[in-house]
Design a protein that fits this description.
heterodimer; A: alpha+beta; 3-stranded mixed beta sheet; 4 strands; B: 4-stranded antiparallel beta sheet; two-stranded antiparallel ribbon
């Protein structure tokens, strides 16, 4: 009995040797803020669907994590984000792929679930649903973080000079 | 990639995942996050799952659905199914990453086969906990 909430901020963690105490404290503080966002829904007898929505929105708003505001860059220096949500009651689901500009992609996934008969929508069609649902859009500057930009430049440079290693965490985003 | 799974006081489950993808990825490349049954899944009778890692490997294994199927068809406990899929199956095809998986009885596992995973959890009446490595 009682609620349970779990979150993740991705498996592409900094190697332990590169993680400074300050940086580690910042990650733990961000994860704590995210848990609080979801917990406040469940403590008020809210639904699991609303709790995961609130928690993932908080994760998307944290530039430390690879989603929403902290999303990594494509090789063209742009953003293409994906999101999904699923309700354990009756297998209702919504998902979006290849979108940019929406502040919280998880809200768009939920709009696909609640406002259409579809499960997965991509690109401009998905963005039309975001506008119809009145979701918040942000400009490119909102999604820019120096660290992600530097990661892209380093990746492209290593690709160009043939020094890109095959560290699995590169595939973690 | 980020995600959450939750069990509410009414006993219902839900899961959500969101991602920016992979640094330097080709335009149009989609990973497992938006694919229901790969990176995101929830069914009140089995489990809620959100995954993160090597998207192509998670898609090939249909990781979240595999955990659900092991529970539903193989009568495996969720924690055993989730660990087997990440530690055995994912590693066996050279994939890496992790996931959070929650069952309707409140059982929770957060396995990963790589260096770490930013993660946290909180239970009704308990203190929140966060981990990295």
């Amino acid at each position: 009995s009682g609620f349970v909430l779990a979150i993740h901020g991705g498996a592409g963690v900094l190697p332990r040797d590169d993680m400074s105490p300050e940086r580690e404290a910042a990650y733990h503080a961000a994860l704590g803020r995210v848990l609080a966002a979801g917990q406040s829904v469940l403590t008020a007898d809210g639904a699991a669907l609303d709790a995961v929505t609130a928690a993932v929105m908080a994760l998307e708003d944290e530039p430390l994590f690879n989603a929403g505001r902290g999303a990594v860059f494509t090789r063209d220096g742009r953003h293409e984000m994906d999101a999904a949500i699923m309700d354990g009651r009756g297998r209702r689901a919504g998902a979006v792929a290849g979108i940019a500009g929406v502040r919280n992609p998880v809200l768009l996934a939920r709009a696909v679930m609640e406002r259409t008969d579809h499960v997965l929508m991509a690109g401009t069609g998905a963005l039309q649903i975001a506008r119809a649902a009145g979701l918040a859009f942000e400009d490119d500057a909102y999604f820019y973080t120096q660290e992600r930009w530097d990661s892209l430049q380093e990746t492209l440079r290593m690709e160009a000079d043939g020094t890109l290693d095959d560290d699995p965490s590169r595939r973690h985003g | 990639t980020v995600g959450a799974v939750a069990l509410d006081r009414a006993g219902n489950l839900a899961a959500a995942t969101s991602t920016g993808g992979m640094t330097g990825k080709r335009a149009g490349r989609i990973g497992d996050s938006p694919i229901i049954g790969a990176g995101t899944f929830a069914d009140d009778t089995t489990c809620a799952v959100s995954a993160t890692g090597d998207g192509e490997a998670f898609i090939r294994l249909l990781v979240a659905h595999e955990i659900d199927a092991r529970i539903r068809l193989g009568a495996q406990p969720m924690s055993e199914a989730a660990r087997a899929v990440v530690i055995d199956d994912l590693s066996a095809i050279g994939g890496s990453g992790g996931l959070i998986s929650l069952a309707r009885d409140g059982a929770l596992v957060m396995p990963f086969n790589c260096e770490g995973m930013y993660r946290g959890c909180v239970r009704d009446g308990g203190a929140p906990e966060t981990h990295i490595y």
